[in-house]
């Protein structure tokens, strides 16, 4: 089983997984996470309005994926650890919004000066949840399998 995972998570596939997770997070930051109210007074809150960290983590994920392709040894591990932490933070934000949308939407609604009773979950929340899980998976794959990548036998930092 581990051998199959190690074979799949070679450099190219691992970077693609990281980039897919980061892009999903970026996309989720512009899509609706929670809709509040109904009718003409409805307010749709995007991922960026709910938590600004989602967009930031998406950008860091894209940049981190590129840097991991160029980095070697411990630098690659450090970058993967940062991406793992970011993925966990994004996952926590999505889970909190999923479990209690009213509580998660309260700070954004107070900034917008809006209120409402009906809270429905949008597709952006599910994209953020999926993106964070994929980003976490890619970061774990870098930590676990990157020592076996081709460049490790060469000298370098």
From TrEMBL:
Coiled coil: none annotated. The chain crosses the membrane at residues 12-33, 53-71, 78-99, 119-145. The keyword GTP-binding does not apply. Keywords: Membrane, Transmembrane, Transmembrane helix. The keyword Membrane applies. This is Putative membrane protein (TIGR02234 family).
